[in-house]
Write a structure and sequence with these properties.
- One of its GO terms (cellular component) is mitochondrion.
- InterPro entries: Aminoacid_DH-like_N_sf, Malic_enzyme_CS, Malic_N_dom, Malic_N_dom_sf, Malic_NAD-bd, Malic_OxRdtase, NAD(P)-bd_dom_sf.
- β16, α18 and β17 form a beta-alpha-beta unit.
- The termini are close together.
- The protein has a 7-stranded mixed β-sheet, sandwiched between helices.
- By secondary structure, it is of the alpha/beta class.
- The chain folds into 3 domains: about 110 residues, no CATH class; about 230 residues, Rossmann fold, CATH 3.40.50; about 290 residues, Rossmann fold (3-Layer(aba) Sandwich).
- The protein contains 26 helices and 22 strands.
């Protein structure tokens, strides 16, 4: 166990910061090979009982020496000779001391070599190979792992997060090497309050929870969905600077990508001999909710200040659990609220790209394909935005389609969550639409849309072969269906007839194969002036004649780290709609340069430019650099500050650490952003001493 020496504790009372770039000495209670081989230790994660702070002086105590230290994913060959003497490591490592920079360069060389050696291999093979080499680094040196991730976020985010994380989840039982996080099942009912104390950390800042029932667009993956919380928490560390000791993994961490799992309905997994979960169907109804209730109560009994992010629950439970807990605990659902925030930021950016004032958002015609938790979350937040602009009597032009077509109030057994967006008969009569209409005719009167892609939604395929509806001509076509290719040729061509001079196409489903369309087809068929955004990363499109079709990545990674960090630093009792809207509007305003808007850059840049010589002006322009994904910590700082200020304004903030509400209230916008930045953890080695 870690403990703080008196000198460190004294400094703890004088400081406010959660993280440090200054090396603080650590006292360990293990020696020799115990240090090098203990799987629960990381040299820089110096403290279990209090946050990691910036210390002018201070000593943190750990209990390992000898072989125990060598077992830990810490510094490899980086122990200096004096430290080897203190910890009994002399002779247990090669004599040369390898610096952090040398370790960094060696890993990057290995990674580039892997890229070269896998050229020409299938994408899935290359992606999993890259994930494995990063995962092995994580196992042996967590400090170096996060430094590599932070410095190369553009290259590595698609590996540890979307889209590769979907492939990892599909194969997780076969890829499993060591446990990460905690697992709760139906067999643990009545034991969760005691189980939660099996986690060795006394402090938790951030928890990501899933039940594995709807992983990305891949469906029910059961226990294998644990890959999603692991990837999300890696992004919390990289983007938000959450100290990993206060999240998950290792003895000295203070949280876990918790996984409240209750079985699976995926027959393929149930028959897989390698599957690591229970071989039983999922619980339903009150039996299901009682398990989640027990877990949530146990978490907050031990860690009452932790922020909990619900992730990848199927729609019926996503809305149920959000309504059930959001007023009681500091929690949010990333699929409903995070996706909605990113989409709203993109929608507001689209209005700017169209050359219209933001208030014109109320007049935008938006067709949303997919009525799951994400699609409904987007419409709910968009409706709130319209209401703020036009008043409570707002009548937005939203059209919602699910597997059975257009949702109207005539539908039987309509999902209560979809009811506010169901169209009444008189609203669509003039358009020639009716209940169950398929993907709307968005261009000409004679556009028949073949919807074979919809077959994945239901067993009864009759009635979905073709459909014809009157003109809608939407400004925005937004997909959250999870059905790859559903925006097929006729749909994309019809978008040319949009009422907007610059229509938008958002293909937001993940992973890559589930995207509603690819950007090449969108720019080719819908026109070169469209605004395009996708959930997974795609390369920009070479349109010829020196023109480039910019591909935005409308991914939650720009928002959820800031939501979590802002809620944490404010000490918010719960996360309100106002806090979430503040996050979305902050992200929308982040692209502040009109030049970026003219280039249809509504989200920070992620794509590699295909023809760099044709883009020398774009690639070197002063406005370009602040908007890259590599600036994600700056983005998160501003989003987090916006969330924090909203919590203070709503009187939801209680302060965090030794920064009270009054101090937060008196901070200017710039001071709040700086406060958030100063509380971001950064990976460095700290010296170790043994007690």
């Amino acid at each position: 166990m870690w403990r703080v020496a008196r000198s460190a504790a004294s400094t703890f009372r004088r400081t406010r910061r959660l993280s440090t770039a200054i090396s603080a000495p650590c006292i360990v209670h293990k020696r020799g090979a115990d240090i090098l081989h203990d799987p629960w230790f990381n040299k820089v994660l110096v403290n279990l009982e209090v946050p990691q702070f910036v210390w002018d002086r201070g000593v943190v105590v750990v209990v390992w020496k000898f072989n125990a230290i060598l077992d830990l994913p810490n510094t490899g060959h980086g122990f200096p000779m004096t430290e080897r003497d203190r910890l009994g490591l002399r002779g247990l490592l090669p004599p040369r001391v390898i610096s952090f920079e040398q370790q960094y360069d060696r890993f990057m060389e290995s990674f580039r070599s892997l890229e070269k050696n896998t050229e020409g291999q299938p994408d899935s093979v290359v992606s999993l190979a890259k994930w494995r080499i990063l995962n092995r680094l994580h196992d042996r040196n967590e400090t170096l792992y996060y430094r590599v991730l932070i410095d190369n976020i553009k290259d590595f985010a698609p590996i540890i997060y979307t889209p590769t994380v979907g492939l990892v989840c599909q194969n997780y039982s076969g890829l499993f090497r060591r446990p990460r996080g905690m697992y709760f099942s139906a067999k643990d009912k009545g034991e969760m309050m005691s189980m939660i104390f099996n986690w060795p950390s006394t402090q938790v800042d951030m928890i990501v929870l899933t039940d594995g029932s709807r992983i990305l667009g891949l469906g029910d993956l059961g226990v294998q969905g644990i890959g999603i919380p692991i990837g999300k928490l890696d992004m919390y560390v990289a983007a938000a600077g959450i100290n990993p000791q206060r999240i998950y993994l290792c003895l000295c961490l203070t949280g876990a990508p918790s996984y409240a799992w209750r079985g699976t309905n995926n027959q393929k997994l149930l028959e897989d001999p390698l599957y690591l979960g229970l071989r039983q169907p999922r619980l339903e109804g009150e039996e299901y909710l009682s398990i989640v209730d027990e877990f949530v109560e146990a978490v907050h009994a031990r860690w009452p200040k932790a922020v909990v992010q619900f992730e990848d629950f199927q729609a019926k439970w996503a809305f149920e659990t959000l309504d059930r807990y959001r007023k009681k605990f500091c929690m949010f659902n990333d699929d409903i609220q995070g996706t909605a925030g990113v989409a709203l930021a993109g929608l507001l950016g689209t209005v700017r790209a169209q050359g219209r004032p933001l208030t014109d958002f109320a007049n935008q015609k938006i067709v949303v394909v997919g009525a799951g938790s994400a699609g409904l979350g987007v419409l709910k937040m968009a409706l709130q935005a319209v209401s703020r602009m036009t008043g409570p009597s707002a009548d937005p032009h939203f059209f919602l389609l699910d597997k059975n077509g257009l949702i109207t109030k005539d539908r039987k057994d309509i999902d209560p969550a979809a009811l506010p967006f169901a169209k009444a008969h008189h609203e669509i009569e003039g358009l020639g639409l009716q209940e169950g209409a398929g993907l709307a005719e968005v261009g000409t009167n004679n556009c028949y849309l073949h919807l074979s892609a919809f077959y994945a939604f239901q067993d009864n395929k009759a009635g979905l072969n073709v459909c014809q509806v009157k003109k809608v001509k939407p400004h925005v076509l937004l997909g959250l269906s999870g059905v790859g290719g559903i925006f097929h040729e006729e749909v994309l061509r019809a978008m040319k007839e949009s009422d907007s001079v610059r229509p938008a196409i958002f293909a937001m489903s993940n992973p890559t194969n589930n995207a509603e369309c690819c950007p090449v087809d969108a720019f080719k068929l819908a026109g070169e002036d469209i605004v395009f955004a996708s959930g997974s990363p795609f390369a920009n499109v070479d349109l010829g004649n020196g023109k480039i079709g910019h591909v935005n990545q409308a991914n939650n990674m720009y928002l959820f780290p800031g939501i979590g960090l802002g809620a944490l630093l404010s000490g918010a009792r719960n996360i309100s709609d106002t806090m979430l809207e503040a996050a979305a509007e902050c992200l929308a305003s982040y692209m502040s340069d009109e030049k970026s808007i003219e280039e249809s850059c509504i989200h920070p840049l992620t794509s590699k430019f295909l023809v760099l010589e044709k883009l020398s002006i774009l690639a070197t322009a002063d406005w370009f650099w602040p908007y890259r994904i590599s600036s994600i910590r700056d983005i998160t700082a501003e989003v987090g500050a916006a969330v924090l200020r909203a919590a203070v304004a709503e009187d939801l903030a209680e302060g965090h650490g030794d920064v009270g509400v009054r101090e937060l209230q008196h901070m200017s916008k710039e001071e709040t952003i700086e406060h958030v930045r100063q509380n971001m953890w950064y990976p460095v080695y700290g010296p170790l001493v043994h007690e």
